[in-house]
Amino acid sequence: MIAGLPDTVRFVERDWLSSNQVFLVDGGEATVVDTGYVKHAPMTAAIVGRLLEQTGSRLATIVNTHLHSDHCGGNRLLAETFGARILVPEASVEDVAQWDEQALTFAATGQRCDRFQAQGGISPGDELVMGGLRWRAHAAPGHDPKSLVFHCPEARLLISADALWENGFGVIFPELEGESGFDEQQAILELIATLDVDLVLPGHGPAFGDVGAALRTAFSRLEALREDPTRQPRHGLKVLIKYLMLDLERIETERFVERFRVASIPRHAAHRLGLSPDRAIRDTISQLVAQGQLAEDAGWLIDASAA
Predict the structure, then answer these.
(1) Where are the domains of the chain?
(2) Which of 34, 60, 93, 173 could form a disulfide with 121 if both were Cys (CB 3.0 to 4.6 A apart)?
(3) What's the angle, vertex CA 305, arms to CA 301 and CA 307, rounded to 5?
(4) Can you tell me the distance from the alpha carbon of 60 to that of 141, in angstroms, rounded to the nearest whole number?
(5) d(Cα 235, Cα 265) in Å, to the nearest integer?
(6) Of the candidates 121, 132, 119, 202, which has an alpha carbon nearest to the alpha carbon of residue 168?
(7) What pLDDT, in 10s, does the model give residues 165-202?
(8) Which long-range contacts (CB under 8 A, 24 or more apart) does 215-219 make?
(9) Do the two domains 9-227 and 231-306 of this chain adopt the same fold?
């Protein structure tokens, strides 16, 4: 158990392909916040199944902080397996109903997600009872315009999604597309600084208690992004290519370039760098190979962690 975490709350740290999960039990009913990537959906279901067995509860609700594929890829399997309802940010309800893969960013990033249905939406200011605790939803645009974070003043806990990690925050995707994101990220960091928080449960990486240090790091990184307009698109391309390779593990390089360059966000990022999509993708692959993140072998691109 993590110090400072109530008995009704479990934090499941995953990796960079699947988001972390927060599992909360209230009597005989449980809630899970975020469900990881579709490739890991069976693993997520197994983890949740063990927690349900340990706590003698049933999964009643799936809550999504936002609908990037690494946070909602297990929604369909968990809902079908355990009979849970799905709640998403209210701003994304219509996108889910229409299954607009561009608006949901799956097509825009070249990623994938099993289609699911949402039974309700959560708006900023709404309060949810999860794990016998009352949580308030706060808008957290920046990384994703429709994202939420959840704060529990009573237990001084924050489910921060990708708005704040111990060493930064998620890619500011709107900025890759030429839209405002830095100001919104600044605003959510400033909001978090006003909240009573002793422990943060982030979307990726370990839970942490030194909120002040994390905020200082985040503000510093945000300032660095503002100062260099090429830094965010370069970083975004690296993250997206590495992420997709975590899923694919191994693919012919030419096939990867053909697949990735049709996604809109990489094209926008390349434009912001003054490069063609082809050139930007190939240059980024070369950088990731040089850094040991990827490998190339006889025309094949390989994720180094799977080699």
Answers:
(1) 9-227, 231-306
(2) 93
(3) 60
(4) 27
(5) 13
(6) 202
(7) 999 999 999 999 999 999 999 999 999 999 999 999 99
(8) 215/164, 215/189, 217/166, 217/167, 217/168, 218/164, 218/165, 218/168, 218/169, 218/189, 219/186, 219/189
(9) no
In the chain, which residue ranges form alpha helices assigned H by DSSP? 41-55, 69-72, 75-82, 93-98, 106-109, 173-176, 182-194, 211-227, 231-248, 253-260, 264-272, 277-290
Task: Return the CATH number of 231-306, one of 1.10.357, 1.10.8, 1.10.10, 1.20.144.
Answer: 1.10.10
Q: What angle do CA 236, 68, 32 make, to 5 degrees?
A: 135
CA quadruple 218, 66, 18, 105: dihedral, nearest 10 = -100
Average pLDDT rounded to a whole number, residues 7-14: 97
Q: Which has the closest alpha carbon to 37: 305, 261, 244, 266?
A: 244
**Contact, 17 vs 246, CB < 8 A?**
yes
Give the C-alpha separation, 195 to 151, whole Å: 8
Six-digit token pair at 276?
A: 């063609």
- Span 116-128, pLDDT tens digits: 999 999 999 999 9
User: Mean pLDDT of all residues in the chain?
Assistant: 97
Q: State pLDDT tens for residues 65-100.
A: 999 999 999 999 999 999 999 999 999 999 999 999
Q: Which CATH class is domain 9-227?
A: alpha beta
Beta partners for residue 30, in sequence order? 25, 59
Question: What pLDDT, in 10s, does the model give residues 131-168?
Answer: 999 999 999 999 999 999 999 999 999 999 999 999 99
Give the C-alpha separation, 34 to 11, whole Å: 11
Rounded to the nearest 10 degrees, the angle between the axes of helix 277-290 and helix 253-260 is 130
